[in-house]
Amino acid sequence: MTDLFSAGDLRRMLSRLRDVMAGAGAVQGRLDKVVALIAEGLRADVCSCYVMRAGEVLELFATFGLAQKAVHQTRLRVGEGLVGEIAAHARPLALADAWSHPQFVYRPETGEDFFRSLMGAPLVQAGRVIGVLVVQTREERPFNDWEVETLETVAMVIAELMAATQVVKREELFQSEGNALLHVRLSGASLNPGVGIGVAVMHKPHVRIGRLVSDDPVAEQHRLQDALDALRREVDALIDGSRDESEGYGDILEVYRMFADDRGWISRISEAISSGLTAEAAVQKVHDDTHVRITQANDPILRERLQDLEDLANRLLNILAGGGLRVELPDNAILVCRSIGPTELLDYDRRKLKGLVMEEGSPTMHAAVVAKALDIPVLAQVHGALSRIDSLDLIVLDANAEQIVLRPSDEIIELYTAAIDARTKQKAAYAAIRDLPAVTRDGVRVSISINAGLLIDMQGLVDCNADGIGLYRTEMPFLAMPTLPDVKAQYALYKQVIEGAKGKPVTFRTLDVGGDKIAASSFSGPEDNPAMGWRSIRLTLDRPALLRQQLRAMIKATEGEVLRVMFPMVASVAEFDAARRIFDLEMERHLRDGGRSPKSVSVGTMLEVPALLWQMELLVTRTDFISLGTNDLMQFMFAADRGNTRLAHRYDTLSPPVLKVIRDVVGQCAAAKVEFSVCGEMAGVPLDALALVALGCRNLSMSAPAVGPVRAIIRSAVLAEVEPFILDLLRAGDPSVRERIRAFTQDRGISVD
Question: Is 428 domain-assigned?
Fold first, then answer.
């Protein structure tokens, strides 16, 4: 087809398809003409259009070449057959001999016995697969890349035209919900705690494209360039306008601006315009291509960066369409969306925004970071939110309990209003003890630090008056940027962190990527079990240049200051020794080149791999400090993936085996006079923190919001009473002693959030 089918042919076919879909007559008749036109244009014997129906079923909606009796009769589940395979993975498929493929499913009613080859592409609209477009030929025909790209372009246009003509009405895609007047509870995952009561405002970033095909690519290229210039001006204005309040998320906006200048993204849009699409359609096509590919990846961080690109695409489409993004909100708005980008969230009046509900989303997505800075409750992964919530529905968003209540009764509203008042009083109580030390009633001092990963987190050091940064996750810039930051960029970041700490200690954890946090640059391919694969210190020891550059930047940034470096995921003393040798080489290099020495140097390790528990005798002779990472250690101890929701509540950190391990490690560190701390999620849960203190832990590091509750429970406890009670529980045979500890605190009047 490369020789016979030119870009001009494609533009003419797209123009004809546009005219047919925009014409008069029933939708079915227009679709019948469309598949015939595509078959003719692509020199194929068959063209079929499958449309997604309720229950993830693909229905044959129109065909040229197959038996007409199969229309509206042939159905395939997503994942079933080649058509279902295309829909499931949202990727094109091209086979010279389709019958030999293991996924091939024969449907006799279609009469496809005579057709050997198959090429198909997903119909994607607003990031969702709404159908599949397929062409077939009688002979075994190998399809080339140009043919696949052509079909993808046609599929993109057909998807937008189908959405515009509502081939399948939105309500048909969802099952009946019963009586819509009764209140409904939907669950999700809390990304920022809090409670909000308000009315639903639907975030609708997708711009309906009115004109898809152009006969003047040069004019469209000019329109694209003008829109890109306007986009950059908008982003610059957003950064400048938020400068006073964006101390926490200014770095995110800067990364966002880098995406806006990405040459690869822009060149792909230009190529799509050259194929005959308008600037708007080209932006949408490139975005859909990127979306369906990245959403198939196993890397959640990469998928989160996709949301930034979607934010950019929506903003660029709005500029091309001549519209604006800002929406007037009611005074008590709960924003509802599939997902949202950081600048899209900032376009709303945050004074009126009482909460954010998302069908997707994860803790490290940029919009969630911005929402935390603005103190907006966020509930993500609320399945069915867009189908079950209507605009202006009254909503109670309880991100603390990880649920929302739709159309709540007056009694429920009164209950939550009281809860909001109580929470306000509780925050005031925490604020009242903000400047008081975390000391038990019998005089035992506990150091409370915070975990951080972005400059936004540094504000928490001031807000909660923590003792320092017990864990600074240095991988966040690696994950947020399209390319690896060099020594200069890392130095600038670490210098800002040290200056932001204002003399308080900062513990830098070296690069912890791989597993569930592979950077956008993708160091390696997919692994069967990434949590226990090529990650963290294993990766950086195999790529020592990465580690050396990072350590070089840290050493330079801490000249005359305290330098604390911690290596993650160490499984053997030999690994720690190898990493320490690299550190020593970089320190020697720094001093040899005339650099100033840090005020003091401490090098330690995370304790996350159980194998290290049996090497403690040697480990304590080599490290300056050890920090227990409870998140990974617990999942490895119990062989339970911490991301698996089925296992989330099966194993408890407050179980005798966990408490015994911590008691033993604390004892070994104390005997060797090695500093010990806990920096996993366990440290930030008040009951867990109390147990840790009773076991001898005197250094805890947690998220900033957890500092108030943990400080309160420590200050209200008498350690001499708690310690023997906790130690006695080590002999219990229960899988969890959490409720017994909770009952103890209630009996003793110990403050528990």
Answer: no
Residues 662, 543 share a domain = yes
Beta-carbon count within 10 A of 727 CB? 13
Kindly report, residue by residue over 326-369, the tens digit of the pLDDT: 567 888 999 998 888 777 787 788 788 999 999 888 766 767 77
Question: How do residues 275-294 score in pLDDT, each as one tens digit?
Answer: 888 888 888 888 777 666 66
* Beta pairing class for 447-452 and 469-473: parallel
Positive or negative, the CA dihedral 235, 239, 245, 246 is: positive
Token pair listed for 505: 């200690």
Q: Are residues 566 and 688 in the same domain?
A: yes
Contact 624, 505 (CB under 8 A): no
Tokens 């923190």 belong to 689
Confirm if 517 and 475 have CB atoms less than 8 A apart. Answer: yes
Query: Helix crossing, 544-557 with 487-501: angle to 10°?
Result: 40
Task: Judge if 601 and 458 occupy the same domain.
Answer: yes
β-bridge partners, 562:
600
Residues in CB range of 515: below 8 A, 6 or more apart: 530, 531, 532, 533, 535, 536
Range of the structural domain that residue 642 is part of: 446-748
Residue 351, domain member (yes or no): yes
Sheet with 353-358: strands ordered across? 184-187, 403-406, 394-398, 195-202, 333-337, 353-358, 378-380, 189-192
Total domains, the chain: 4
Are 462 and 454 in contact, with CB atoms under 8 Å apart? no
**Helix 279-294 to helix 145-165 angle, to the nearest 10 degrees?**
110
Tokens, residue 604: 């330690």
pTM score, whole prediction: 0.59
62 C-beta neighbours (distance < 10 Å), count = 24
294 and 374 co-located in one domain: no
Read off the DSSP letter of residue 381.
Answer: -
My answer on whether 484 and 615 are in the same domain is yes
Rounded to whole angstroms, the Cα distance separating 229 from 343 reads 17
Q: Using DSSP, state whether 452 is helix, strand or coil.
A: strand
Q: Kindly write down the DSSP assignment for every residue of 253-266, as one continuous string.
A: HHHHHHHHT-HHHH
Residues 640, 663 share a domain: yes
Q: What is the pLDDT of residues 577-598, one digit of tens each?
A: 999 999 999 999 999 999 999 9
- CATH number (domain holding residue 367): 3.50.30.10
List own/partner pairs for 543-549 with CB under 8 A and 24 or more apart: 544/582, 546/484, 546/511, 547/510, 547/511, 547/579, 547/582, 548/582, 548/585, 548/586, 549/486, 549/487, 549/490
Residues 102 and 196 placed together within one structural domain of the fold: no
| 314 and 200 within one domain | no
Report whether 339 contacts 229 (CB < 8 A).
no
